[in-house]
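Quick check before the chapter quiz. The format below is the same one you will see on the exam, so make sure you can read both the input and the output lines.
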Amino acid sequence: MKYTISTTIHKPINQVIALFDDPANLKHSFPTLQSTELIGGVAGQPGAKTRMNFKNGNRTLTLTETVLVRNYPHEFTCAYEAPNVYNTVKNSFSKAGENATLYTSEQEFKLKGFVKVLGWIMPGAFKKEGIKHMNLFKEFAEKQ
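Here is the expected output.
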């Protein structure tokens, strides 16, 4: 399953990238994120691996993020792995005016087991979640 989403953030591109690139700001896009732990490589650089722990109500989820490409503003790509899920996310940024930035996210999911069934039944739920996190980042960035 693949999809692309985008939004315009009313801030200059250099400010948007600085906010996006700061791991301390993840909590603004992912409010259920409880903790992160670098488990390999240099943070934010290709090859870096980070364990990410989420909690939503009584449910917990642990993902492993691997940075694949870091070439701002053109591309920042990561892979996310969890049981039965492999997700790649390519983020890119471009000027959309003097004080605006177009933020685009291309996402691809490879699903197995029960999660694959959910992907067939509710493919829109994955995109809806991506849009939610993108909009949370946009709201945060525009307040800075």
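If your answer matched, good. The mean pLDDT is 94.
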